[in-house]
Structures
1.
Amino acid sequence: MNRAAHDDENYGTGMKVWLDQQEVQQLLDAAEDTEQRIAFGLGARCGLRSQEWLDVEPRHVTDTSMGTVLQVPAGKGDKYRETPITTELATAIRTVGDIEGDDTTPVIRSASSTRVLRKWMARARDRLADEHEKPEWRDVSPHDLRRTWATQLRAAGCDPLVVLNWGGWEDLETFLDHYQGTHTPEMQKRERQKADWL
């Protein structure tokens, strides 16, 4: 887990957090039910903002020439975008629609606001902090999942302009300044191995 102090006074003394893939999986596993697991997955696996989690409907999962994507019809500023989605998450969302017999109803039904989503996150992160004796978990917020997603894509070698497009950021400077985090431990290890004297 990488952390840094917020450089924005609106966040007070909070921390920005970037999880590694193992920690993302731990968080998904800490969800209390399928609905929460889908919600956390929308942040960690699709890069959605927490407000966007509440708007996802099964019909937004679609197959395109680039693969299966999640359509975000009205993201920040009511802007449309498409972002890749994992097979597991796409299947879970489509299954909700199949069970309900309705693909136009939001899959996150128990949360009426982002405040509820933050409570879900708080319960999951508190369990993880206690279980792993790692108090840093208590700093994790829903927005950190979006931050993690972007950094993990960059660490995997994805073009930053493509990540910018998938995430719906206005400009590269905003993305680089606020979302791309410190390099993942895996990326640092890979780069270190390039210097045989280290």
2.
Amino acid sequence: MSKWIHTEIYASPHGELILGSYHDQLCLCDWRYRKSRELIDRRIQTALKASFVEAGSKVNEKCKDQLEQYFSGERKEFDLSILLVGSDFQKRVWNLLLEIPYGKTLS
């Protein structure tokens, strides 16, 4: 089993994103430059007992393709295998967020 999280930078129309995949699942898609970047990266690496390596992956490529489609207005839903890395509370919140339809807002 791999102990690597394959990371790549994706230049979106709204800023750079860092993408990370682990065992054929997307485990990271977040803004590259943000205050808590180091904390988030360390949390993911610790939880997965894996280190970041700058390398491509099929998952990252699929994510980049779908992001391109999303930003061009061609895609409204993503079809990616996602590995949520966080506390039980964080996972519950993220799963609820995934249920919000495209173009809708809830509070």
